[in-house]
Amino acid sequence: MVRENRKICRNRPPNGGFFFSRQEGRMNIKVKATIIDSSGLSRTLTRLAHEIIEKNKGSEGLVIIGLRTRGDFIARRIALKIQEIEDVKIPVGALDVSFYRDDFRETMKHPQVQLSDISFNIDGKHVILIDDVLYTGRTIRAALDALMDYGRPASIQLAVLVDRGHREIPIAPDYTGKNIPTSIGEEVRVKMKEIDDEDCVLLVEVED
Fold it and tell me: What is the pTM of this model?
């Protein structure tokens, strides 16, 4: 087995080869490609911030809520970029949807439940809901249910860093950092400095 290279996000594998192979529980994870590196991630978040401002004709009435865990970090970074552009501080919150998921009782034997942190009123606000990877759409459906317990926003807009396809519910993002089509056995892993000590987006192959 090849030892994990800590600089994996800074260099792309040659000819689509694997950077490393490692075990996660009972799964073997092979990194196939670095889709977005650190500088690319920063540029993508800057673009998303500009798109949010443009669509909403400014930042008035905006609040940003990120889905735990990495969506929360992405949300805070985008809020800072909007603040730099508009010179206005945007309220930022974090939402955990564990108890709202339709598979909570069936598949989440040991759910990693985290506290939601929304300390502001969302009534009449334009909520920018942010997640790292959009897949089946079930997490977003759960997030919409959860948000309704906090109030009645004027609108809810969805921003995702990566859309990997394979939707099971008719949900589409309003803002997308990058579309990354995936096949069976492939996943997209987002790494953030706040929790992973590095910034990048990886395409990985998962083997049982």
Answer: 0.84
